[in-house]
Amino acid sequence: MARLPIDPICVNGQSNTGVTGDERLYLSQPSIYSAAQVQGSEARILDDALLNDSAAKAVVFRLPDEVNCDEALLGLNPREVTLDVNVTDGVVQVVSEFVSRANCRYICYGTATVVDDRHVMTSAHNVWDWKCGLAISIRIHRDNRVDPYGLDDRCVKGGAVHYKWATEYSGQHDFAILQVAKPFDDKIRPMKYRRAPPDEGILDVQVHGFVYDTPRLGNGACFGHLWHSSSKAQHIPSAQTLLHHSGDTKKGASGGPVIDSSGIVVAIHKGSSNNRLGMINKAVAIDHHGNDVEKFIQMLAIKDGAPGNPEIMQSSEFKVKCYDAAFFVWEQA
After folding, report:
1. Is the dihedral of CA 124, 129, 135, 138 positive or negative?
2. Which of 68, 159, 167, 201 could be disulfide-bonded to 28 (CB atoms 3.0-4.6 Å)?
């Protein structure tokens, strides 16, 4: 994720203190984070289910009807501008606005993958920041070579992040599904995805992202061209919780797809870290550790009024900033 401006815009002359938002305090104590706390309702949360470590959990948020995420240039696999129309039509940019408790505003850029005509998957930290909490607004943009006037821009009306990201900023749960307010049209092609293959040896992959160091317009905004880096990747769940890859990335690539040699997305790029072998880039494996694409989409549909799923339990509702929210719980396969 790329954060702009570098020096935050501060309202009322205040500067950023870096204080963690209220969401983390309340979400980490689900027994007190209920509709009764926030709205005066007598509804209560499914505390027993939420505190059961065997259950997968998510926080789903929706607009009312009215962690180290640094990137690494490893120098092993140089980046190139993405020209493949099947990718440029299915990988989009996420632009989020955050407000800190000190009332400072940030605009942050990341990457996402379209999975159907209403949903994209991305890194949770693109929309739920460890300092500022949940973004106050989220928008989706296409590569401006195919949409120079922003005609296909979409507003995000809701989303779902893993409970352990919202409460602990757990790296292996840095995963989110976002729902757009208006369906994408036929020009945008959803990308195929699959469960990240465990212990399958070395994979040939491409990592795509709207990186921060692309050319800029006169007002300082990114041109919004998609780039990629071809690299090797490996996922060994027994030894590491994240997929490792050697692609070159920069800020803005967070949430970008890791695509295997058959053109299928297997992971979502997260950021970099140091290990005993040196710097490595990492990605969140799809459909591991409760990062379940289909379950997240089902929860958003339930939040939208669709019939319930007996496999999924929902709490009472509460508020997170301007969003109506609820906890959802399900048993992992």
Report:
1. negative
2. 167
pLDDT above 70 as % of the chain: 67
List beta partners, residue 203: 233
Rg (CA), the chain: 19
pLDDT tens, residue by residue, 55-87: 677 888 887 654 344 455 555 555 555 555 555
pLDDT of residue 53: 55
Phi, psi of 300 (to 5 degrees): -65, -40
Query: How many angstroms separate the CA atoms of 91 and 69, rounded?
Result: 20
- Cis before residue 5, ω within 30 degrees of 0? yes
Q: Which two tokens stand for residue 100?
A: 């800190």
Mention every residue, 6+ apart, whose C-beta is less than 8 A from residue 35: 41, 43, 44, 316, 317, 318
Q: Within 55-161, where are the H helices?
A: 85-88
What are the C-alpha distances in Å from 203 to residues 124, 213, 235, 272? 25, 27, 9, 18
DSSP string for residues in 182-198: S---TTS-PPPB-PPPT
Task: At 52, list the tokens.
Answer: 């059961």
Measure the CA–CA gap between 280 and 296, rounded to whole angstroms: 29
What distance in Å separates the CA atoms of residue 284 and residue 268, rounded to the nearest whole number?
5
pTM, two decimal places: 0.79
Strand partners, 290: none
For residues 32 and 40, the answer to whether their CB atoms sit within 8 Å is: no
Within the chain, how many helices (H) and strands (E) appear?
A: 6, 19
